[in-house]
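Before surveying the methods themselves, let us examine one representative protein, written as a sequence plus integers encoding its fold.
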Amino acid sequence: MHIEDAWILRALMENTLDGIYVKDRQCKIWRVSRKLADSLGFTEIEEIYGKTDIDLYGEEFGGKTMLDDLEVMESGIPKTGVIDKLKKPNGEYNWTSSTKMPLRNDRGEIIGLLGISREINEIKNAEHAFQWLATHDPLTTLPNRYLLLDRIDQAISLANRNSESFALLFLDIDEFKKINDLQGHMQGDEYLIKLSELLLKNLRSSDTIARFGGDEFVILLNEIPDRTAARIVADKINKMIFDQVDPIHHIFTASIGLSLYPEDGNDAETLLNAADLSMYATKQQRNL
């Protein structure tokens, strides 16, 4: 290698923002960039030379990356966009995207591997945030209707395997528009948040509480034996709402309908429609 080429290589390895590494056919490290050494906690780069990913990252993570490296060196086919996540001691994950290329000598023989790794934590965090927003209600942080439908499908599969039943409670806030008109939308939002917190606190962690619409909530009660048991839960929720959401004026109340699987339907849409119709029947009866 010419002196000028060596200087360029040294400058690249010292200043690049990516993690660059060179390994031999036994997956032992020949050379690493300063960025990679710093991320691994090494002050002296030479301390890393001769180590494998198992030495640096442990058997589980290191074994996986070494298999990828060996595949590239044995096949001669580069790998691009290899996504890995490594759990750090503080419990957080470090996400990287890597490109791995076979390293050849002048005769074309594969003598090692060149890897370039870039941290993509910001991208992954953004992906997780978008995924959360797509499946949750931003005001109450409850699952939205899309996640609810998935949970109902899961409940159907589980109920069929275990010969069990489950219930849906369809909760509609009474005259919510009037509440917003009289007390303002900010107070209306506070009521919705308080209702969500009460439901989360008083129902089982195995149940799903979802905000289905503006003033509509659906509760998936797993392992409910019959309609009577579901109605007992609905009555308790009604009393809790009346007593605790607006304990002074009791202006905040709700009507709750229910459906039971498989008695009222064999799919999510049918069960939701049945619970919705039951809710309207309850609301009409209360208004008589």
Remarks:
- The first strand starts at residue 19 and ends at 24.
